[in-house]
Structure formats: C-alpha cells, structure tokens
C-alpha cells in the first residue's frame, strides 16, 4: 500500500541532484498538497482533482528553477503570486484564492529558511533529521521529531490543531505526517538511513475528506441528517468548525479501531482508504465534504 502511494507521488520529470534535494522537494510538494475544497472548480476548469493539479504545477515549478535548484531558498523566495497563478493555472476567479494559498505556503517556507541562513529546504530536512538521529539511541531519526519540527518551523503550513468551545483539543497533523511518510518512502531506495524513521509505524492516519467520505460510505462514521445534507449539497464546512474537526476526528478514531482489530497501522488503513477504496467509481460518486479555506488537505 505504501509503495503504491510513493510510486504515484514520485517526480520522474525532475532530475534530483542528491537524496537531500529529493527529500527537500518531496517535503515541499506535500506542503503544497491541499486544495480539495476547490475540487468542483478544479474538475470544471482542469478536468481533474486537487492532487493531480497540484502535481502538474509542481513539475512546472521545478522546470522553471535555474540549475535545478528545485528547493533552493532563493528560488522559493523569488516566486510571486503571479507565478503561482500561472503555474497552477488559477486564472479563474473561483481558483484565485487557491493560488494565494499556495503562494502563502511557499513564502512561509522561504522566509523561514532565509531568516535562518539555510540555502534550501533539503538542507533544513537534512539538518533536522541529523539532529534527531544524534539524539536517538538507535542512531536513526524519529518521525515524531520530524513532524514536530515541521509544525514548529512552519505553523501556517502544518499546525493542524484546534481548540474547541467545549474545551476539547484536537491535533490531527494530516499534512505534516504525510510529508514525513513521503520522505521515508520516497527515499527508501537511497541506501541512506538518515531518511528512514525508526518509529515510522507510530504515525496516525492522514485524515482528509477522502478518508472521511470512505468512512461515511461504509458507516464507520454516522452523522446527523443536517450535516449529511450540507455535505451532499457541497456546502462548505469552515476550517476549525465543530463539523469539520469532528468529521476528521471521527475518521481518525475509526482508523485507530480498525488498526487494533487488524494488526495493521492506522496509516496503512488510511492509505488503503485513500488510494484504493476512495478511487473506485462507486465511492468517487459519494460526496466529500469541502473546506476551501484549509491548507491541510
């Protein structure tokens, strides 16, 4: 399951100069892996869903880079809102907010790297994993450390956590965990233990609207009729709302229970939901909730 996901997300169009650069570009690519809330507009204007559109833009972004500096700080810092609009073909009014969100993420990463005198995102990944490995008894980095580092360094991009009105607190970290997973899987053939997390299996599910839809489809999640009607009518759910967070939290709970029952990890189960069950023609027709203002899926 994981190998299938990694193969789909590789970038054969780009010639990486090192494992470090590949790790940097994979981290960038999944920092930008969102836009599902624009799915109806993307299908209308681009004829495909969010990830395929994002991936096409990433390839074009890479090809624009001078001397193959795909993840270089100077290059990322030079990217303008017009560039993201052009690269991701977001000229239609309905898609212009997506271009702005993509630009905001790129600039958060670039500003942090520049402010810390780091020449590329790959260098930051290398330094972060090296620091984790040095602190570990096993000599290998911790996926927990990497997820935490992503959230702390780039909060706009990765801080997927919520404080609810009733005092409950939810930390979902869908995208930060996805980045860690893609680095681990995407570099598993590089013969470099620096990119292999000792505690990889401790990741929870990367819960987005596809995983939620599959859970709803098979009644692992049951909602009230009012929420069903909103989802079916493609009425947006605001990021951080009780409905949006609740759906994802219930999806996370469902994958944890399935993991306990099957002996698989929650990540394996969620990847199967996303990459297999969620792609069947029957399940594609099942409405996914839309949250256009989220940067996390």
Explained architecture:
- This protein has 297 residues and is mostly helical.
- The protein is built from 16 helices and 2 strands.
- It has a two-stranded antiparallel ribbon with strand order 1-2.
- It is globular, with a radius of gyration of 19 Å.
- The two termini are 20 Å apart.
- The model is unreliable at 1-9 (pLDDT under 50).
Number of helices: 16
β-strand number? 2
The stretches of 5 or more residues where confidence is low (pLDDT under 50) are 1-9
Q: What's the main sheet like?
A: 2 strands, antiparallel
How would you sum up this structure in a few lines?
This protein has 297 residues and is mostly helical. The chain is built from 16 helices and 2 strands. Strands 1-2 form a two-stranded antiparallel ribbon.
List the SSEs and their pairings.
Elements lengths: L1 H8 L9 H13 L7 H7 L4 H15 L8 H6 L2 H7 L8 H20 L5 H14 L8 H11 L1 H4 L2 E3 L5 E3 L2 H13 L22 H9 L7 H8 L9 H21 L3 H10 L5 H4 L13
Antiparallel strand pairs: 1-2
Helix pairs in contact: 2-8, 2-11, 6-7, 9-11, 12-14, 12-15, 14-15
Search tags:
mainly alpha
